[in-house]
Design brief:
Layout: H1 10-30, E1 41-42, H2 43-50, H3 54-66, E2 70-73, E3 76-79, H4 81-87, H5 96-106, H6 111-117, H7 121-126, H8 135-141, H9 150-161, E4 169-173, H10 179-187, E5 192-197, H11 203-211, E6 218-222, E7 234-240, H12 250-260, E8 261-270, H13 282-287, H14 289-294, H15 302-311, E9 314-316, E10 332-336
Helix pairs in contact: 2-3, 9-10
Organism: Maledivibacter halophilus
Domain O-methyltransferase dimerisation: 16-88
GO molecular function: O-methyltransferase activity; protein dimerization activity
Length: 337
C-alpha cells in the first residue's frame, strides 16, 4: 500500500519493475531454462542443448541473476534453491506449468477496452465460471501445488479431529482432482469418500481414483452441487473454495451441507477471504478481475459466507479448541449447532 508520507514516484516505478520481473519469470518457465540449471552450467552449453541464441541467452541469464532467480560464477549459472525445487521439471514438485497456466487464465488483456465497452452479455446472463475457465486443466495442473500446503493443512486438521482407525465417510465438494479426498482416504484406511465435481472436471478424479485402485472406497459424482443431491451421512465435508461461488443459492447450499452432515460431523470451509468492500485480499481481487470484466459476478465476501453458515445452524470451532491444530490452518472448522 502506498505510504501517505511518500511523495516519491518510486512507488510506481517499482510496480513497473515488478511487472518486468514477472515477465522474465514466465519467459524462463516457457523456455524451460530452470530444468537445465540444476547444477552449475556454462551458458554456451545451455545454448548448445536448447538451440537458443548464445548471445541473447547470456543476456537473459544475467537478467535472471539480477532478479535473484539463478546465481552466477564466472560464465556458469545455477538455480537458486527455491527455483530448483519448484521450477525444475526434474524435481518432484514442479509448478512451472501451473504458474504459467494461472497467469494466462487470469491475465489482464485489453483492460482499457473492456472497462470502456463492458462485459460479455451471455457471461452476465449465465454467470457460470465453467463458461469462462478451463477448470479441468486447472485441476490437473494444480495437483502438485496442493502438496505445498493444502494437503498438509487438511491432514493436520484430521489428526486433531479423528482417530486413525475410525470408519469415516467424507465428501470433497467441488474437489477438482480429488487430491484432498484421496490423501484423506490414504491416511484413514477404514474410511470411504465421495468426490463431487462438475461434469467438465469429474473425469480427472475418476482417473486418479482408478490409478490409486480406490474405486471400492471413493465414488466420484458428477453434477451441479447447487442443484443436485450431494449425498448424506458424512462425518467430514471438505468445501474448499466452493461457497464463494454459490452466490445465487447460498442459503440453499448451506442447508444442503447441514442436512448432509452427521450430528457429530465436521465441515471444513476454505474461502477466498474477500472483504465486504471487495478490495482485499489483493490476490483474490486482482486474480478474479479478468473474469469479472468478462461478466462473472460470483465471488462472495467472507462475512456473507460466515453469516449464512451461522444462520443455517453451523457453529465455528475456535482454533484454540482444536488440539494440535497447525498455526497456518487455511480454513475454518464448523459443527452443527
Amino acid at each position: 500500500m502506498l505510504n501517505k508520507k511518500d511523495c516519491s514516484p518510486n512507488y510506481f516505478y517499482k510496480m513497473v519493475q515488478n511487472y518486468k520481473e514477472a515477465q522474465l519469470l514466465f519467459a524462463a518457465i516457457e523456455l524451460d531454462i530452470f530444468t537445465y540449471l540444476g547444477e552449475f552450467k556454462d551458458y554456451k552449453a545451455v545454448a548448445l542443448e536448447t538451440g537458443y541464441n548464445e548471445r541473447n541467452l547470456k543476456f537473459f541469464l544475467n537478467s535472471l541473476v539480477a532478479i535473484g532467480l539463478i546465481e552466477k560464477k564466472g560464465d556458469i549459472y545455477r538455480n537458486t534453491p527455491i527455483v530448483d525445487r519448484y521450477l525444475n521439471k526434474e524435481r518432484e514438485v514442479y509448478l512451472g506449468g501451473y504458474i504459467v497456466f494461472r497467469e494466462k487464465m487470469t491475465q489482464l488483456l485489453n483492460v482499457v477496452e473492456r472497462v470502456k465497452k463492458g462485459p460479455i452479455d451471455y457471461v452476465v446472463k449465465n454467470n457460470k465460471g465453467v463458461e469462462v475457465y478451463d477448470f479441468y486443466k486447472l485441476a490437473k495442473l494444480s495437483i502438485k501445488e496442493m502438496y505445498t500446503g493444502r494437503v498438509q493443512s487438511l491432514l493436520e486438521i484430521s489428526k486433531s479431529l479423528f482417530i486413525k482407525d475410525k470408519a469415516l465417510k467424507i465428501l470433497d465438494l467441488g474437489g477438482g482432482s480429488g487430491t484432498l479426498a484421496i490423501e484423506f482416504i490414504k491416511n484413514y484406511p477404514d474410511s470411504t469418500g465421495v468426490i463431487f465435481e462438475h461434469p467438465s472436471v469429474s473425469r480427472l478424479p475418476k482417473e486418479l481414483v482408478k490409478e490409486m485402485e480406490f474405486e471400492d472406497r471413493i465414488k466420484v459424482l458428477s453434477g451441479d452441487f447447487t442443484i443436485d443431491d450431494i449425498g448424506k451421512d458424512y462425518d467430514f465435508i471438505i468445501a474448499s473454495g466452493v461457497l464463494d461461488f454459490a452466490k445465487d443459492s447460498l442459503s440453499h447450499m448451506v442447508k444442503k451441507l447441514y442436512d448432509a452432515l452427521n450430528v457429530s460431523g465436521y465441515l471444513y470451509i476454505v474461502s477466498h477471504d474477500v472483504n465486504e468492500e471487495h478490495t482485499a485480499p489483493k490476490q483474490s481481487i486482482v486474480g478474479w478481475l479478468s473474469s469479472h470484466l468478462d461478466g462473472l459476478d460470483i465471488l462472495l465476501d467472507k462475512n456473507s459466507i460466515t453469516n449464512a453458515l451461522e444462520t443455517g445452524g453451523f457453529v465455528e470451532i475456535e482454533r484454540d479448541n482444536i488440539q494440535g491444530i497447525m498455526d497456518n490452518l487455511q480454513g475454518e472448522i464448523y459443527i452443527k449447532g
